[in-house]
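Example record used in the benchmark description.
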Amino acid sequence: MTSTRVGLLQICLAGVLWGTGGVVVTVLHERDGLTAMTVSAWRMLVAAVALIGFAVVIRRWSAVVRTARAHPLLVALTGLGTAAYQALYFLSVLTVGVSVSTVVALGIAPLLATAWEHGRARSRPARRQLLVITAGLAGLVLISTLAHEGRGAPLDRPVLGLLLALVAGVVYAATTLVGRHLATRVDPVALTTGATATGAAVLVPFLVTAVSASDPVGPSGAGSAALLLYLGVATMALAYGLLYLGLRTTPGSSATIATLLEPVAAAVLAVAVLGERLPWPAWAGGALILVAVALTPSSREPSAHPLT
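Model output (structure tokens):
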């Protein structure tokens, strides 16, 4: 039981790190004119370089190679899914705003992951799991909608943004389930490194495209460079390492609930750093998410009833 709760805590920490990413992406867009795809490419590239270096230093590079050879398709799918999700989500944030993007992308994932797991097991969720999902989604709506109330999207294309958020949520749920399947079989450092390198290979061509189109590509100063470094190392390499480490003992449906801490962290960061004021329903939403995470069943706790 202890290992399963530790796994859930690791995924919670990943969600907190992801919660800091949206603010950084918005700052980079407003300060340097970097597009969502450009930032996503830099984020994956920095993370891939950091992880490869880390794997070499701790002598896990052979494990990376073995994992890629033993599970090439699953590693590729995990990397492609990770790259696609973050690009779709960041594009959605810039076209429809943070609140809608967060509610749709993160809200649909627990529903899809839970439906998939119980569909495969031919079971139905227990009352506790339904309560957790309901509390988590209610809290997500409250904190995301009210915390970002009145903020417009830089590109202001709501229909496109909504579709992008929906696809992002589907990709996120699918990638979490694939990652869960692979994380229980291979070394988490090897999985994170292989998946991130794959994602970087997919997104780096967007940097070339930006250069050919004479669009802003790099940071304008040391501050922006530090933000890109933070995005890659903290919100990508470290966060996804924690995710795959936690998925070794945590089911995908529970993981998607735990990562609802992302908007909570984003809201707290906005208050602490940007001096924003949140209405009390937003704080109530954050509290609901915390309760949902605390009550999230671990893999060894009963969370399903057989279909009769």
